[in-house]
Design goal:
The chain has a domain of 127 residues: 2-Layer Sandwich (Uridine Diphospho-n-acetylenolpyruvylglucosamine Reductase, domain 2). It contains 18 helices and twelve strands. The protein binds protoporphyrin IX containing FE.
Length: 455
Protein backbone atom coordinates (compact mmCIF):
# COMPACT_ATOMS: atom_id res chain seq x y z
CA UNK A 1 0.00 0.00 0.00
CA UNK A 2 1.37 3.46 -0.86
CA UNK A 3 1.59 5.90 1.99
CA UNK A 4 -0.10 9.23 1.40
CA UNK A 5 2.18 12.18 2.09
CA UNK A 6 0.50 15.29 3.35
CA UNK A 7 2.59 18.03 1.85
CA UNK A 8 3.77 18.10 -1.73
CA UNK A 9 7.42 19.24 -1.88
CA UNK A 10 8.66 21.98 -4.18
CA UNK A 11 10.94 24.98 -4.69
CA UNK A 12 10.19 28.21 -2.87
CA UNK A 13 11.30 30.23 -5.93
CA UNK A 14 11.96 33.95 -5.90
CA UNK A 15 10.64 35.66 -2.72
CA UNK A 16 8.65 38.20 -4.77
CA UNK A 17 7.41 36.25 -7.77
CA UNK A 18 7.82 32.57 -6.94
CA UNK A 19 8.93 30.46 -9.91
CA UNK A 20 7.12 32.45 -12.61
CA UNK A 21 10.13 33.68 -14.61
CA UNK A 22 12.05 30.41 -14.28
CA UNK A 23 9.09 28.54 -15.72
CA UNK A 24 8.55 30.80 -18.73
CA UNK A 25 12.20 31.56 -19.51
CA UNK A 26 13.94 28.30 -18.59
CA UNK A 27 11.17 25.70 -18.58
CA UNK A 28 13.29 22.64 -19.36
CA UNK A 29 16.00 23.37 -16.82
CA UNK A 30 13.50 24.39 -14.12
CA UNK A 31 11.25 21.35 -14.50
CA UNK A 32 14.13 18.86 -14.86
CA UNK A 33 15.75 20.20 -11.69
CA UNK A 34 12.42 20.04 -9.85
CA UNK A 35 11.93 16.38 -10.72
CA UNK A 36 15.48 15.55 -9.72
CA UNK A 37 15.28 17.45 -6.43
CA UNK A 38 11.69 16.79 -5.33
CA UNK A 39 10.35 13.74 -7.20
CA UNK A 40 7.44 13.01 -9.51
CA UNK A 41 4.91 15.45 -8.02
CA UNK A 42 6.12 18.97 -7.30
CA UNK A 43 4.39 22.02 -5.95
CA UNK A 44 5.27 25.37 -7.57
CA UNK A 45 4.16 28.86 -6.74
CA UNK A 46 3.97 31.87 -9.06
CA UNK A 47 3.26 35.52 -8.40
CA UNK A 48 3.86 37.94 -5.54
CA UNK A 49 3.12 37.11 -1.88
CA UNK A 50 -0.54 37.53 -1.05
CA UNK A 51 -1.56 36.82 -4.65
CA UNK A 52 0.51 33.75 -5.07
CA UNK A 53 -0.92 30.97 -7.25
CA UNK A 54 -0.05 27.38 -6.46
CA UNK A 55 0.09 24.51 -8.91
CA UNK A 56 1.14 20.88 -8.93
CA UNK A 57 3.35 19.51 -11.67
CA UNK A 58 3.23 15.79 -12.38
CA UNK A 59 6.18 14.09 -14.12
CA UNK A 60 5.43 10.35 -13.96
CA UNK A 61 3.74 8.41 -16.79
CA UNK A 62 1.42 6.88 -14.18
CA UNK A 63 0.32 10.34 -13.07
CA UNK A 64 -0.25 11.43 -16.68
CA UNK A 65 -2.41 8.34 -17.23
CA UNK A 66 -4.49 9.20 -14.18
CA UNK A 67 -5.07 12.83 -15.20
CA UNK A 68 -5.73 12.27 -18.92
CA UNK A 69 -7.07 8.72 -18.90
CA UNK A 70 -8.37 6.79 -15.91
CA UNK A 71 -9.56 9.85 -13.93
CA UNK A 72 -10.10 12.25 -16.85
CA UNK A 73 -13.56 13.28 -15.60
CA UNK A 74 -11.98 14.72 -12.44
CA UNK A 75 -9.46 16.87 -14.34
CA UNK A 76 -11.18 19.57 -16.33
CA UNK A 77 -9.94 22.04 -18.91
CA UNK A 78 -10.35 24.89 -16.47
CA UNK A 79 -6.72 25.79 -15.92
CA UNK A 80 -5.88 29.50 -16.08
CA UNK A 81 -4.36 28.84 -19.49
CA UNK A 82 -7.44 27.10 -20.93
CA UNK A 83 -9.69 29.85 -19.54
CA UNK A 84 -7.61 32.44 -21.39
CA UNK A 85 -7.49 30.36 -24.54
CA UNK A 86 -11.27 29.99 -24.54
CA UNK A 87 -11.75 33.74 -24.25
CA UNK A 88 -9.24 34.40 -27.05
CA UNK A 89 -10.04 31.77 -29.66
CA UNK A 90 -13.50 30.66 -28.64
CA UNK A 91 -15.24 27.47 -27.67
CA UNK A 92 -13.94 25.04 -30.30
CA UNK A 93 -12.95 21.40 -30.11
CA UNK A 94 -9.75 22.02 -28.12
CA UNK A 95 -11.35 24.27 -25.51
CA UNK A 96 -15.00 23.18 -25.19
CA UNK A 97 -16.35 20.79 -22.56
CA UNK A 98 -19.40 18.69 -21.70
CA UNK A 99 -22.39 18.79 -24.10
CA UNK A 100 -20.82 21.39 -26.42
CA UNK A 101 -17.75 19.24 -26.71
CA UNK A 102 -19.63 15.97 -27.33
CA UNK A 103 -21.65 17.60 -30.06
CA UNK A 104 -18.62 19.14 -31.76
CA UNK A 105 -16.64 15.92 -31.59
CA UNK A 106 -19.54 13.97 -33.17
CA UNK A 107 -19.65 16.41 -36.08
CA UNK A 108 -15.90 16.81 -36.57
CA UNK A 109 -14.50 13.32 -35.92
CA UNK A 110 -15.60 12.00 -39.36
CA UNK A 111 -13.45 14.70 -41.02
CA UNK A 112 -10.33 13.31 -39.36
CA UNK A 113 -10.54 9.63 -40.26
CA UNK A 114 -7.40 8.23 -41.85
CA UNK A 115 -9.04 8.10 -45.26
CA UNK A 116 -10.15 11.73 -45.08
CA UNK A 117 -6.81 12.94 -43.83
CA UNK A 118 -4.97 11.01 -46.54
CA UNK A 119 -7.03 13.08 -48.96
CA UNK A 120 -5.18 16.22 -47.77
CA UNK A 121 -1.90 14.90 -49.12
CA UNK A 122 -1.94 17.02 -52.30
CA UNK A 123 -1.90 20.21 -50.25
CA UNK A 124 1.01 18.87 -48.18
CA UNK A 125 2.94 17.84 -51.32
CA UNK A 126 2.33 21.21 -52.97
CA UNK A 127 3.54 23.20 -49.96
CA UNK A 128 6.60 20.94 -49.54
CA UNK A 129 7.49 21.46 -53.20
CA UNK A 130 7.05 25.23 -52.91
CA UNK A 131 9.30 25.25 -49.84
CA UNK A 132 12.01 23.19 -51.56
CA UNK A 133 11.92 25.54 -54.57
CA UNK A 134 12.25 28.56 -52.34
CA UNK A 135 15.16 27.02 -50.45
CA UNK A 136 17.03 26.32 -53.70
CA UNK A 137 17.03 30.07 -54.29
CA UNK A 138 18.45 31.08 -50.87
CA UNK A 139 21.83 32.63 -51.89
CA UNK A 140 24.04 31.51 -48.96
CA UNK A 141 21.90 28.50 -48.07
CA UNK A 142 21.41 29.73 -44.48
CA UNK A 143 17.86 29.51 -43.07
CA UNK A 144 16.33 29.54 -39.60
CA UNK A 145 14.67 26.16 -39.08
CA UNK A 146 12.08 27.51 -36.63
CA UNK A 147 10.96 30.40 -38.89
CA UNK A 148 10.88 28.24 -41.97
CA UNK A 149 8.86 25.45 -40.42
CA UNK A 150 6.45 27.88 -38.79
CA UNK A 151 5.71 29.36 -42.19
CA UNK A 152 5.45 25.95 -43.86
CA UNK A 153 3.08 24.51 -41.24
CA UNK A 154 0.90 27.62 -41.25
CA UNK A 155 0.64 27.57 -45.04
CA UNK A 156 -0.16 23.86 -45.06
CA UNK A 157 -2.89 23.92 -42.40
CA UNK A 158 -4.36 27.09 -43.99
CA UNK A 159 -4.39 25.46 -47.44
CA UNK A 160 -6.16 22.41 -46.02
CA UNK A 161 -8.71 24.61 -44.27
CA UNK A 162 -9.28 27.28 -46.88
CA UNK A 163 -8.19 25.73 -50.19
CA UNK A 164 -7.85 28.46 -52.78
CA UNK A 165 -8.43 31.16 -50.13
CA UNK A 166 -5.11 30.31 -48.47
CA UNK A 167 -3.22 33.49 -49.39
CA UNK A 168 -5.89 35.75 -47.88
CA UNK A 169 -5.53 34.06 -44.51
CA UNK A 170 -1.81 33.38 -44.16
CA UNK A 171 -0.58 36.98 -43.76
CA UNK A 172 -3.18 37.88 -41.14
CA UNK A 173 -2.61 34.72 -39.14
CA UNK A 174 1.16 35.05 -39.36
CA UNK A 175 0.94 38.58 -37.96
CA UNK A 176 -1.82 38.20 -35.40
CA UNK A 177 -1.36 34.78 -33.81
CA UNK A 178 2.00 35.53 -32.15
CA UNK A 179 0.58 38.76 -30.68
CA UNK A 180 -2.50 37.00 -29.35
CA UNK A 181 -0.36 34.12 -28.07
CA UNK A 182 1.91 36.47 -26.15
CA UNK A 183 -1.07 38.22 -24.64
CA UNK A 184 -2.88 35.14 -23.45
CA UNK A 185 0.30 33.58 -22.15
CA UNK A 186 1.06 36.67 -20.05
CA UNK A 187 -2.44 36.48 -18.65
CA UNK A 188 -2.42 32.71 -18.20
CA UNK A 189 0.70 32.91 -16.02
CA UNK A 190 -0.20 36.08 -14.21
CA UNK A 191 -1.79 35.90 -10.75
CA UNK A 192 -3.41 39.34 -11.27
CA UNK A 193 -5.35 39.81 -14.48
CA UNK A 194 -6.77 43.20 -15.38
CA UNK A 195 -10.29 43.02 -16.83
CA UNK A 196 -9.97 42.63 -20.58
CA UNK A 197 -11.98 45.76 -21.30
CA UNK A 198 -9.60 48.09 -19.44
CA UNK A 199 -7.74 50.19 -22.03
CA UNK A 200 -4.20 49.04 -21.12
CA UNK A 201 -1.64 48.72 -23.97
CA UNK A 202 -1.57 44.93 -23.55
CA UNK A 203 -5.37 44.66 -23.65
CA UNK A 204 -5.45 46.83 -26.77
CA UNK A 205 -2.85 44.73 -28.56
CA UNK A 206 -4.67 41.53 -27.59
CA UNK A 207 -8.03 42.87 -28.76
CA UNK A 208 -6.58 44.06 -32.07
CA UNK A 209 -4.99 40.68 -32.82
CA UNK A 210 -8.23 38.91 -31.94
CA UNK A 211 -10.24 41.27 -34.15
CA UNK A 212 -7.96 40.60 -37.13
CA UNK A 213 -8.15 36.84 -36.71
CA UNK A 214 -11.92 36.74 -36.22
CA UNK A 215 -12.27 39.20 -39.12
CA UNK A 216 -10.46 37.12 -41.70
CA UNK A 217 -12.17 33.87 -40.68
CA UNK A 218 -15.63 35.49 -40.63
CA UNK A 219 -14.98 37.05 -44.02
CA UNK A 220 -13.99 33.78 -45.67
CA UNK A 221 -16.95 31.98 -44.06
CA UNK A 222 -19.39 34.71 -45.17
CA UNK A 223 -18.06 34.70 -48.75
CA UNK A 224 -18.46 30.94 -48.90
CA UNK A 225 -22.04 31.20 -47.70
CA UNK A 226 -22.88 33.28 -50.79
CA UNK A 227 -21.67 30.60 -53.18
CA UNK A 228 -24.14 28.11 -54.72
CA UNK A 229 -24.00 25.27 -52.18
CA UNK A 230 -23.19 27.51 -49.25
CA UNK A 231 -19.85 25.82 -48.78
CA UNK A 232 -17.69 27.10 -51.57
CA UNK A 233 -18.93 25.53 -54.80
CA UNK A 234 -16.92 22.45 -55.52
CA UNK A 235 -14.31 23.00 -52.85
CA UNK A 236 -13.52 20.03 -50.68
CA UNK A 237 -11.29 21.81 -48.20
CA UNK A 238 -11.79 21.34 -44.47
CA UNK A 239 -13.88 24.50 -44.14
CA UNK A 240 -16.32 23.22 -46.79
CA UNK A 241 -16.52 19.88 -45.00
CA UNK A 242 -17.09 21.59 -41.64
CA UNK A 243 -19.82 23.76 -43.19
CA UNK A 244 -21.61 20.75 -44.63
CA UNK A 245 -21.12 18.46 -41.61
CA UNK A 246 -24.47 17.18 -40.27
CA UNK A 247 -25.30 14.98 -37.31
CA UNK A 248 -27.87 12.19 -37.39
CA UNK A 249 -30.71 14.54 -36.42
CA UNK A 250 -29.55 17.23 -38.83
CA UNK A 251 -27.54 19.16 -36.23
CA UNK A 252 -24.83 21.44 -37.65
CA UNK A 253 -22.25 24.05 -36.66
CA UNK A 254 -23.54 27.63 -36.77
CA UNK A 255 -21.30 30.42 -38.23
CA UNK A 256 -19.79 31.36 -34.83
CA UNK A 257 -19.02 27.76 -34.04
CA UNK A 258 -17.52 27.34 -37.49
CA UNK A 259 -15.21 30.28 -36.87
CA UNK A 260 -14.21 28.90 -33.47
CA UNK A 261 -13.28 25.54 -35.03
CA UNK A 262 -11.29 27.22 -37.79
CA UNK A 263 -9.34 29.25 -35.25
CA UNK A 264 -8.69 26.16 -33.13
CA UNK A 265 -7.37 24.24 -36.13
CA UNK A 266 -5.12 27.14 -37.10
CA UNK A 267 -3.83 27.37 -33.55
CA UNK A 268 -3.53 23.67 -32.73
CA UNK A 269 -2.29 22.60 -36.14
CA UNK A 270 0.32 25.24 -36.80
CA UNK A 271 3.03 25.84 -34.18
CA UNK A 272 2.83 22.27 -32.89
CA UNK A 273 3.70 20.68 -36.22
CA UNK A 274 6.19 23.49 -36.91
CA UNK A 275 8.07 22.85 -33.66
CA UNK A 276 8.32 19.11 -34.27
CA UNK A 277 9.57 19.63 -37.81
CA UNK A 278 12.04 22.35 -36.82
CA UNK A 279 13.63 20.17 -34.15
CA UNK A 280 13.69 17.12 -36.42
CA UNK A 281 15.58 19.16 -39.04
CA UNK A 282 17.88 20.71 -36.49
CA UNK A 283 18.69 17.36 -34.86
CA UNK A 284 19.38 15.74 -38.23
CA UNK A 285 21.55 18.68 -39.26
CA UNK A 286 23.72 18.00 -36.18
CA UNK A 287 23.77 14.18 -36.48
CA UNK A 288 25.29 13.09 -39.81
CA UNK A 289 24.92 9.33 -39.27
CA UNK A 290 21.18 9.55 -38.64
CA UNK A 291 20.79 12.11 -41.43
CA UNK A 292 22.42 9.83 -44.00
CA UNK A 293 20.21 6.97 -42.95
CA UNK A 294 17.12 9.15 -43.31
CA UNK A 295 18.34 10.42 -46.68
CA UNK A 296 18.85 6.89 -47.98
CA UNK A 297 15.27 6.10 -47.05
CA UNK A 298 13.93 9.29 -48.68
CA UNK A 299 15.93 8.61 -51.86
CA UNK A 300 14.68 5.04 -52.12
CA UNK A 301 11.02 5.98 -51.64
CA UNK A 302 10.54 9.46 -53.08
CA UNK A 303 13.00 9.83 -55.96
CA UNK A 304 11.61 11.70 -58.94
CA UNK A 305 8.04 12.06 -57.74
CA UNK A 306 5.62 13.76 -55.40
CA UNK A 307 4.83 12.00 -52.11
CA UNK A 308 1.53 10.16 -51.63
CA UNK A 309 -0.29 9.12 -48.46
CA UNK A 310 0.84 5.52 -48.97
CA UNK A 311 4.47 6.64 -48.58
CA UNK A 312 4.01 7.17 -44.85
CA UNK A 313 4.26 3.41 -44.27
CA UNK A 314 7.36 3.25 -46.45
CA UNK A 315 9.25 5.87 -44.42
CA UNK A 316 9.60 4.16 -41.00
CA UNK A 317 13.01 5.63 -40.16
CA UNK A 318 11.93 9.21 -40.87
CA UNK A 319 8.84 8.51 -38.74
CA UNK A 320 11.14 7.41 -35.90
CA UNK A 321 13.22 10.57 -36.31
CA UNK A 322 10.07 12.66 -35.84
CA UNK A 323 8.96 10.70 -32.82
CA UNK A 324 12.39 11.13 -31.27
CA UNK A 325 12.32 14.87 -32.03
CA UNK A 326 8.90 15.03 -30.32
CA UNK A 327 10.28 13.12 -27.37
CA UNK A 328 13.08 15.58 -26.77
CA UNK A 329 11.06 18.65 -27.74
CA UNK A 330 7.32 18.02 -27.36
CA UNK A 331 5.48 21.03 -28.75
CA UNK A 332 2.74 20.68 -26.12
CA UNK A 333 5.43 20.75 -23.46
CA UNK A 334 2.93 21.15 -20.62
CA UNK A 335 -0.78 20.29 -20.40
CA UNK A 336 -2.97 21.94 -17.76
CA UNK A 337 -6.11 20.86 -15.90
CA UNK A 338 -8.07 21.73 -12.74
CA UNK A 339 -8.86 18.98 -10.24
CA UNK A 340 -12.58 18.92 -9.34
CA UNK A 341 -12.34 16.65 -6.30
CA UNK A 342 -9.36 15.75 -4.14
CA UNK A 343 -7.22 13.00 -5.62
CA UNK A 344 -4.03 11.12 -4.84
CA UNK A 345 -1.21 11.10 -7.39
CA UNK A 346 2.05 9.27 -6.71
CA UNK A 347 1.16 9.08 -3.02
CA UNK A 348 0.52 12.84 -2.74
CA UNK A 349 -2.81 14.47 -1.97
CA UNK A 350 -3.87 16.89 -4.70
CA UNK A 351 -6.55 19.13 -3.20
CA UNK A 352 -9.92 19.82 -4.80
CA UNK A 353 -9.71 22.87 -7.05
CA UNK A 354 -5.93 22.56 -7.58
CA UNK A 355 -4.25 23.52 -10.84
CA UNK A 356 -2.48 20.43 -12.15
CA UNK A 357 0.17 20.53 -14.85
CA UNK A 358 1.51 17.56 -16.77
CA UNK A 359 4.94 18.01 -18.30
CA UNK A 360 5.64 15.70 -21.26
CA UNK A 361 8.82 17.75 -21.65
CA UNK A 362 10.20 16.07 -18.53
CA UNK A 363 8.39 12.71 -18.61
CA UNK A 364 9.99 12.22 -22.04
CA UNK A 365 13.42 12.48 -20.37
CA UNK A 366 12.54 10.58 -17.20
CA UNK A 367 15.58 8.43 -16.30
CA UNK A 368 13.36 5.61 -14.96
CA UNK A 369 11.83 5.24 -18.42
CA UNK A 370 14.50 6.32 -20.89
CA UNK A 371 18.10 5.14 -21.15
CA UNK A 372 20.50 8.05 -21.72
CA UNK A 373 17.54 10.37 -22.08
CA UNK A 374 19.52 13.29 -23.54
CA UNK A 375 20.81 11.25 -26.49
CA UNK A 376 19.21 11.54 -29.94
CA UNK A 377 18.41 7.95 -30.92
CA UNK A 378 15.46 7.42 -33.29
CA UNK A 379 15.69 3.63 -32.90
CA UNK A 380 14.10 3.96 -29.48
CA UNK A 381 10.92 3.95 -31.53
CA UNK A 382 11.45 0.58 -33.21
CA UNK A 383 8.10 -1.20 -32.71
CA UNK A 384 9.50 -3.86 -30.37
CA UNK A 385 11.10 -1.21 -28.16
CA UNK A 386 7.97 0.95 -28.15
CA UNK A 387 5.95 -1.98 -26.84
CA UNK A 388 8.11 -2.27 -23.73
CA UNK A 389 7.35 1.25 -22.53
CA UNK A 390 4.56 2.68 -20.39
CA UNK A 391 1.83 4.11 -22.63
CA UNK A 392 2.42 7.57 -21.09
CA UNK A 393 6.24 7.54 -21.15
CA UNK A 394 5.80 9.29 -24.55
CA UNK A 395 2.62 11.30 -25.03
CA UNK A 396 3.25 14.32 -27.26
CA UNK A 397 -0.37 14.12 -28.49
CA UNK A 398 -1.89 13.83 -25.01
CA UNK A 399 -4.11 10.83 -24.28
CA UNK A 400 -7.48 9.59 -23.08
CA UNK A 401 -10.76 11.07 -24.30
CA UNK A 402 -9.21 14.44 -25.19
CA UNK A 403 -6.24 13.16 -27.18
CA UNK A 404 -5.19 15.10 -30.28
CA UNK A 405 -7.54 14.72 -33.24
CA UNK A 406 -4.82 15.92 -35.62
CA UNK A 407 -2.26 13.25 -34.80
CA UNK A 408 -2.41 11.34 -38.09
CA UNK A 409 -2.60 14.55 -40.09
CA UNK A 410 0.41 15.97 -38.33
CA UNK A 411 2.50 12.81 -38.78
CA UNK A 412 1.54 12.58 -42.45
CA UNK A 413 2.47 16.20 -43.03
CA UNK A 414 5.73 16.06 -41.08
CA UNK A 415 7.05 12.75 -42.39
CA UNK A 416 6.30 13.55 -46.03
CA UNK A 417 7.69 17.08 -45.81
CA UNK A 418 10.84 15.89 -44.07
CA UNK A 419 11.19 13.16 -46.73
CA UNK A 420 11.03 15.73 -49.55
CA UNK A 421 13.53 18.04 -47.82
CA UNK A 422 15.97 15.19 -47.08
CA UNK A 423 15.74 14.02 -50.68
CA UNK A 424 16.48 17.49 -52.04
CA UNK A 425 18.97 18.92 -49.52
CA UNK A 426 21.89 18.21 -47.30
CA UNK A 427 21.96 20.10 -43.99
CA UNK A 428 24.58 21.31 -41.59
CA UNK A 429 23.85 22.80 -38.21
CA UNK A 430 25.03 26.38 -37.46
CA UNK A 431 23.47 27.14 -34.05
CA UNK A 432 24.10 23.87 -32.27
CA UNK A 433 22.58 25.00 -28.97
CA UNK A 434 19.19 26.67 -28.90
CA UNK A 435 17.40 28.33 -25.99
CA UNK A 436 13.94 27.02 -25.16
CA UNK A 437 11.12 29.17 -23.85
CA UNK A 438 7.48 28.59 -22.97
CA UNK A 439 4.96 30.05 -25.40
CA UNK A 440 1.48 28.62 -25.97
CA UNK A 441 3.63 25.74 -27.16
CA UNK A 442 7.32 25.06 -26.60
CA UNK A 443 9.18 28.02 -28.08
CA UNK A 444 12.63 28.54 -29.54
CA UNK A 445 14.07 31.73 -28.05
CA UNK A 446 17.35 31.94 -30.00
CA UNK A 447 18.43 31.57 -33.63
CA UNK A 448 18.11 28.03 -35.01
CA UNK A 449 20.09 28.35 -38.20
CA UNK A 450 21.05 25.53 -40.50
CA UNK A 451 22.97 25.63 -43.80
CA UNK A 452 21.37 23.92 -46.80
CA UNK A 453 23.07 22.52 -49.85
CA UNK A 454 20.91 21.22 -52.73
CA UNK A 455 21.74 17.56 -53.47
C1 LIG B 1 3.03 17.73 -33.71
C2 LIG B 1 1.81 18.21 -33.82
C3 LIG B 1 0.78 18.22 -32.73
C4 LIG B 1 0.94 18.06 -31.38
C5 LIG B 1 2.25 17.85 -30.61
C6 LIG B 1 -0.37 18.16 -30.78
C7 LIG B 1 -0.63 18.01 -29.44
C8 LIG B 1 -1.89 17.97 -28.88
C9 LIG B 1 -2.16 17.67 -27.49
C10 LIG B 1 -1.12 17.38 -26.42
C11 LIG B 1 -3.50 17.71 -27.33
C12 LIG B 1 -4.25 17.46 -26.02
C13 LIG B 1 -4.40 18.75 -25.23
C14 LIG B 1 -4.93 18.52 -23.84
O1 LIG B 1 -5.18 17.38 -23.42
O2 LIG B 1 -5.10 19.53 -23.11
C15 LIG B 1 -4.09 18.05 -28.60
C16 LIG B 1 -5.43 18.21 -28.83
C17 LIG B 1 -5.95 18.66 -30.03
N1 LIG B 1 -5.25 18.86 -31.20
FE1 LIG B 1 -3.30 18.51 -31.52
N2 LIG B 1 -1.29 18.42 -31.76
C18 LIG B 1 -0.63 18.45 -32.97
C19 LIG B 1 -1.18 18.68 -34.21
C20 LIG B 1 -2.50 19.00 -34.42
C21 LIG B 1 -3.09 19.28 -35.71
C22 LIG B 1 -2.32 19.26 -37.03
C23 LIG B 1 -4.40 19.58 -35.49
C24 LIG B 1 -5.51 19.94 -36.45
C25 LIG B 1 -5.43 20.22 -37.67
C26 LIG B 1 -4.64 19.44 -34.07
C27 LIG B 1 -5.85 19.66 -33.45
C28 LIG B 1 -6.13 19.35 -32.14
C29 LIG B 1 -7.47 19.44 -31.55
C30 LIG B 1 -8.71 19.94 -32.25
C31 LIG B 1 -7.35 19.00 -30.23
C32 LIG B 1 -8.48 18.84 -29.20
C33 LIG B 1 -9.05 17.46 -29.35
C34 LIG B 1 -10.16 17.14 -28.34
O3 LIG B 1 -10.14 17.62 -27.22
O4 LIG B 1 -11.04 16.35 -28.74
N3 LIG B 1 -3.48 19.09 -33.46
N4 LIG B 1 -3.08 18.20 -29.54
Amino acid sequence: MTTVKARVPGPSGHPLIGSMLDLTRRPLRTYLAARRDYGDVVRFTAGPPGLRAEFFVVFSPEGAHQVLGSEAANFRKESAFYDELRTSVGNGLLTSQDDDYQRQRRLIQPLFTRRRVDGYVDAIALEARMLAERWKAVPDGVVDAADEMSRFALRTVSRILFGADVEAAVDVVHRSFPALGEYLLDRGFSPVRTPRNWPTPANRRGAEAQRDLYGICDRIIAERALRPDGAGGKSDDLLALLTLARGEDGERLDPDELRDQVLIFLLAGHETTATSLAFALHLLAGHPEQRHRAQEEADAVLTGREPTAADLEALPYITRVLKEAMRLYPAASVIGRRAVAESVIGGHVIPAGAQVILAPLVTHRHPDHWEQPERFDPDRFLPEREKERHRYAWYPFGGGPRACIGQHFSMLESVLALGVLLRDFDFEVIDRRVALGQGITLRVDSPMRIRLAPR
